[in-house]
Amino acid sequence: DNMEVINAPRVHTVNGYAFYGCDNLSTVNLPLLDTISNHAFTNCPSSAKSLSMRPGTLPETRTSFTSAEP
Predict the structure, then answer these.
(1) Residues in contact with 62: Cβ distance below 8 Å, sequence separation at least 6, in sequence order
(2) Which residues of 12-49 are buried (b: 16+ CB within 10 A; e: fewer)?
(3) Using CA atoms, how far apart are residues 67 and 17, in angstroms rounded to an integer?
(4) 3-state secondary structure of 55
(5) pLDDT: is 16 or 61 the higher one?
(6) In the predicted model, is pLDDT for residue 47 greater than 60?
(7) What is the CA radius of gyration of the chain?
(8) Residue 46 pLDDT > 70, yes or no?
(9) Rounded Cα–Cα distance for residues 7 and 9 (Å)
(10) What is the spatial distance between Cα 31 and Cα 8, in angstroms, rounded to a whole number?
(11) Between these two residues, 2 and 12, which has the higher pLDDT value?
């Protein structure tokens, strides 16, 4: 996929594999995100160089996430 930027100011949930294989993805803006499912960014080699989401979306013990191979 050629998508480089995701700007989704009204999205509250990102389901699993939602952005699977977005090879060129570099910026993600999800300011109202409450839930992100497993593998949402799987096979996105450059995913989330810039990731913006609501504070507290990730548990306090995690400050980042990684996508694992399926």
Answers:
(1) none
(2) eebeebbbeebeebbebebeebeebeebbbbebeebbe
(3) 10
(4) coil
(5) 16
(6) no
(7) 11
(8) no
(9) 6
(10) 8
(11) 12
Residue written as token pair 């995913």: 47
Would you place residue 62 in the very low, low, confident or very high pLDDT band (cuts 50, 70, 90)? Answer: very low
Cα–Cα distance measured from residue 56 to residue 34, given in angstroms and rounded to the nearest whole number? 8
Residue in the structure block whose two tokens are 């594999």: 17
- The pLDDT confidence band at residue 33, using thresholds 50, 70 and 90, is confident
Residue with tokens 């570099």: 26
Pick the closest to residue 28 from 39, 41, 37 (CA basis): 41
Structure-block tokens of residue 16:
């699993």
